[in-house]
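Section 5: illustrative case.
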């Protein structure tokens, strides 16, 4: 599990939680169904079955893999459009290559994040590079869709390339848990991702038996998704395993514990924590577009058809 790892946890800032905190209880825990995306790469639909108002400001999330490809197997997506939201692709293992109709793009690998604000419209393609298709290998990542408020849905497209080395890193007081901040702020530490809608996006790794308490903005929602291994969430220790999403309730902290013994699938309990300030607007989501009304969805299809979201650049 490359992502970003740290040899000497004592060198990191400690995530101290001062005074009394109210640790959030899970409201619901769901199992993410498996499916296929693009040209047929395996995903788990992390938010399937969860009411949209509990996810707000997030709309959709796929866990891509984890899969160990044989040579020739790695797959991506064809060219496709987006409008009205931001796609955040975080690679844990493996490499993904992105190109878009504005000329943006690049290679992300092992802990890098690509943050694409689709805004008014963009075409892009996401695929493993040719060398990885030839070699096969591990592939594991996340694609998260962050909604844009109506006032920002038609902003010009923007691309942020966030290298793994820029993530904000912290450790639990006993060094048993590593906290990687991709976006948002926890205590004095800030993540590099810049968003229209305030959010917190964190990848944590807990060693066997360790406990982590993360202070959480009360005005943000809170979601915990198990990426690998197993453990529990909340003050009463509700079980959470890989492929499960927990929507958390009121409180000002998120509490996680790793199982006392690793479950054989992973040495660590890997969790993605997400939160954001709800946008509280109607959501019309169809295919690659996330707007406020069905008329705006129809307009998006029309604009895409007429080439108003850009065109595929020459190779
Ligand atoms: Mn896409």
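Designed sequence:
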């Amino acid at each position: 599990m490359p992502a970003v790892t740290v040899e000497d946890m004592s060198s990191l800032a400690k995530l101290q939680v001062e005074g009394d905190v109210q640790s959030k209880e899970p409201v619901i825990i769901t199992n993410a169904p498996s499916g296929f995306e693009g040209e047929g790469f395996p995903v788990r639909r992390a938010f399937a079955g969860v009411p949209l108002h509990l996810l707000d400001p997030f709309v959709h999330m796929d866990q891509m893999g984890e899969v160990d490809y044989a040579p020739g197997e790695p797959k991506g997506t064809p060219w496709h459009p987006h409008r009205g939201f931001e796609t955040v692709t975080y690679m844990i293992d493996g490499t993904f290559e992105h190109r878009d109709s504005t000329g943006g793009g690049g290679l992300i690998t092992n802990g890098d994040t690509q943050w694409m604000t689709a805004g008014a419209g963009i075409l892009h393609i996401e695929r493993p590079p040719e060398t990885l298709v030839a070699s096969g290998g591990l592939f594991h990542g996340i694609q998260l869709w962050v909604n844009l408020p109506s006032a920002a849905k038609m902003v010009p497209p923007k691309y942020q390339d966030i290298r793994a080395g820029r993530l904000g890193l912290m450790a639990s007081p006993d060094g048993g848990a590593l906290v990687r901040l991709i976006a948002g702020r926890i205590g004095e530490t800030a993540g590099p991702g810049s968003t229209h809608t305030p959010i917190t996006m964190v990848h944590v790794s807990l060693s066997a038996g360790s406990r982590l308490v993360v202070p959480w903005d009360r005005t943000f929602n809170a979601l915990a998704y198990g990426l690998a291994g197993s453990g529990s969430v909340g003050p009463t220790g509700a079980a959470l395993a890989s492929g499960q999403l927990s929507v958390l309730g009121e409180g000002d902290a998120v509490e996680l514990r790793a199982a006392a013994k690793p479950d054989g699938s992973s040495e660590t309990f890997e969790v993605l924590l997400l939160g954001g300030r709800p946008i509280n607007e109607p959501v019309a989501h169809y295919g690659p577009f996330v707007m406020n009304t069905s008329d705006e969805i129809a307009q998006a299809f029309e604009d895409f058809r007429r080439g108003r979201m850009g065109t595929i650049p020459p190779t």
